[in-house]
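Team,

Forwarding the record for the chain on the shared tracking sheet. I've put the sequence and predicted structure together so nobody has to dig through attachments.
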Amino acid sequence: MATVTQNQTRRGHGVVLDDHLPLHHRLGRVYRGGAALMGAFLIVFGILGLIDRIGFFSTSGSMVMGLGSNGALSVASFLVGGLLLAGAVIGGNTASTVNIVVGVAFLAAGFISLAVLDTRFNVFAFRLQNVLFSFVTGLLLMTFGMYGRVSGSLPHDNPYWRSRHPRT
């Protein structure tokens, strides 16, 4: 039977991915790099979309960097890019968690926008390439965030493995 740590008792049963882990572990470079790379791209995309002065909720939008965009998507991209860059600056477990959460949001946005393509509910002027971009970006961000953190075969010197097996 597995030993229940104090954090698991306090928060319920399950895997806890935060407080007790080292802040300056070498894996932090992966978390920071992924967040910075994607954040910078999204900020550039947002700025270029705002420069085009596209209608804010135009469902037709225009092309920016090969993706459909309008004012609302440009602002959202800029804000999410800023969030990712903030996570990269903070680093450590925060960057990892931000990558995971934003990655899941990108996957959800991809599915939602796929459902509303070519309808009046397409408020971000998504096109099929935007949907594919959302899926790829979501998977990349989740990979960056979970790298070395979530696996069935983490090495025994990994801080996440050690935190889950404190008496070994």
